[in-house]
Design the sequence.
């Protein structure tokens, strides 16, 4: 799926396949050709999560997921010729299979009290699923517009490939 960057300033409405960034927030809308329950499971089942979470040349190991309020998820991303990244998040809200909210910890300093808040909604569209993803927090504004946008879209491309294989 090729992503279009489409934001209609006149209508202030995000369109499908679009990306919007503000000072410290990123919103991405993607449609997946899979039932909502499977797309949800791809975020909550460690084996499925490890198959798509990360950049195209990365792998994810040591995945642990406890998808409940007060639970969390973690994993180690391995990128060739780069340092491994330890990802960790704490669930704030879990409403299976409709919505999840988690606080993403700083991978460089997990004890940093500043967290990125990630909100994901899973909208049923017949046998397909629309995912509305939002991340906001304390990172420098330019990271939302470039690094996060490119990174999450690469992750979602892998998720799209996974659902097409299943």
Sequence:
């Amino acid at each position: 799926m090729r992503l279009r960057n489409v934001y209609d300033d006149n209508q202030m409405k995000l369109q499908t396949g679009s990306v919007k960034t503000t000072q410290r927030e990123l919103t991405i809308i993607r449609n997946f050709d899979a039932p909502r329950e499977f797309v949800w499971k791809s975020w909550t089942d460690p084996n499925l999560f490890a198959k798509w979470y990360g950049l195209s040349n990365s792998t994810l190991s040591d995945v642990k997921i406890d998808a409940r309020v007060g639970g969390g998820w973690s994993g180690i991303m391995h990128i060739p010729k780069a340092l491994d990244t330890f990802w960790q998040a704490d669930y704030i809200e879990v409403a299976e299979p409709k919505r999840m909210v988690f606080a993403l910890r700083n991978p460089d300093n997990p004890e940093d009290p500043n967290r990125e808040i990630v909100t994901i909604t899973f909208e049923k569209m017949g046998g397909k699923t629309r995912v509305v993803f939002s991340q906001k927090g304390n990172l420098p504004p330019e990271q939302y517009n470039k690094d996060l946008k490119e990174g999450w879209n690469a992750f979602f491309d892998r998720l799209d490939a996974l659902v097409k294989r299943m």
